Amino acid sequence: MTSFEMIKYHGQIYPSDIPLRIEEIAAHFDITSIYSELEVSLHTEYSYGKRNFNSRMLSYFYAILSAQKEGVPQLWKNEMWAL
After folding, report:
1. How are beta strands 68-69 and 72-73 bridged, if at all?
2. Predicted TM-score (pTM) above 0.90
3. What's the Cα-to-Cα distance from 36 to each of 18, 49, 55, rounded to whole Å?
4. CA–CA separation, 35 and 40 (whole Å)
5. How many other C-beta atoms are found inside a 10 Å radius of the C-beta of residue 8?
6. Which pLDDT tens digit goes with each residue over 30-61?
7. Cβ atoms 42, 71 nearer than 8 A
8. Residues 18, 22, 25: CA angle, nearest 5 degrees
């Protein structure tokens, strides 16, 4: 059986009878903190605008650094990352 669950998106207001447990948060690789009262689904490949890939922490993750093109992460093209 397939189940469907609503995910809160960008602060949208939902009817009170719709249970929300998860919120999608755009947590780009250069974001330093996030906040949510719900469990989160991190959307790391949001391609709106270019990202910074020069943080010290990211220097340890070659797969992330090598998957970006002109400041936009394209990890979905990396088979090992997907696995």
Report:
1. antiparallel
2. no
3. 18, 23, 24
4. 9
5. 20
6. 667 778 888 887 666 655 667 777 777 777 87
7. no
8. 125
